[in-house]
Write a structure and sequence with these properties.
217 residues; binds S-adenosyl-L-homocysteine; 9 strands; Rossmann fold
Length: 217
């Protein structure tokens, strides 16, 4: 099945029409095959603007949100990026086309394995996946030019700020329970942090030492 027309339509209707104007992000989202990251029964829905289940009670993020978060990172070719919450691997595939190396942490091993398999099948060799608690970041690979957190945190974990390079950008959904605010935190040349609220969003919880407990509290 050729999904390229559906994919271009998704980008123009749900991403460009809603105000994302980053040409590089638009081009990449017209290319990355989102349908490969969902199970076969859901492939025909892969180019609608919805989050979809990927097993283990987790979801692949809505394309519009992927676009907004990626654009906010203002990635450069050689950037080192940390992603927290590999999930399906789709967001990592998008990042991999725009940055240098992508370090992605996932706490659920079955999802990490599945993501690895799909990313290998489309030759995303610059994505490095590790199974661990990503609420602590990935200390050995820090500092990062950009950090993207794709699960909702109770607050901005200090570890991410520590692992962000000068000039670095962090995007993270923050808030209690099911509703969060997507925040952009930028580390200025003087090492100061500037925080901007981007939009309201709904992510699955970040579970871990700097996140929520396993029962969601
Ligand atoms: N970026 C993903 C969306 C993932 S949904 C995609 O493109 O498909 C959020 C993911 O974060 C889930 O897979 C969940 O298991 C994971 N997660 C939650 N808390 C985590 C933590 N502390 N460390 C790493 N991954 C975590």
């Amino acid at each position: 099945m050729d999904y390229s027309i559906a994919r271009r339509r998704m980008v123009s209707r749900h991403i460009v029409a809603r105000g994302v104007d980053d040409e590089a992000v638009i081009r990449v989202m017209e290319q990355v095959p989102r349908h490969l990251f969902v199970e076969e029964a859901l492939q025909s829905q892969a180019y609608t603007d919805y989050a979809l289940p990927i097993g283990e009670k987790q979801t692949i993020s809505q394309p519009y949100i992927v676009a907004v978060m990626t654009a906010a990172l203002r990635l450069q070719r050689g950037d080192r990026v940390l992603e927290v919450g590999t999930g399906s691997g789709y967001q990592a595939a998008v990042l991999a086309q725009l940055a240098g190396q992508v370090y992605s942490v996932e706490r659920i091993a079955t999802l990490a394995r599945r993501a690895r398999r799909i990313l290998d099948s489309i030759n995303c060799s610059n994505v490095h996946i590790r199974v661990d608690d990503g609420s602590l970041g990935w200390k050995d690979q820090a500092p990062f030019d950009a950090i993207i957190v794709t699960a909702g945190a109770p607050e901005v974990p200090q570890d991410y700020l520590t692992q962000l390079d000068v000039g670095g950008r962090l995007v993270i959904p923050v808030g209690s329970g099911e509703r969060q605010t997507l925040k952009l935190v930028e580390c200025s040349a003087h090492g100061q942090y500037n925080e901007t609220d981007l939009l309201a969003c709904r992510f699955v919880p970040l579970i871990g030492a700097r996140g929520w407990r396993g029962d969601g509290t």
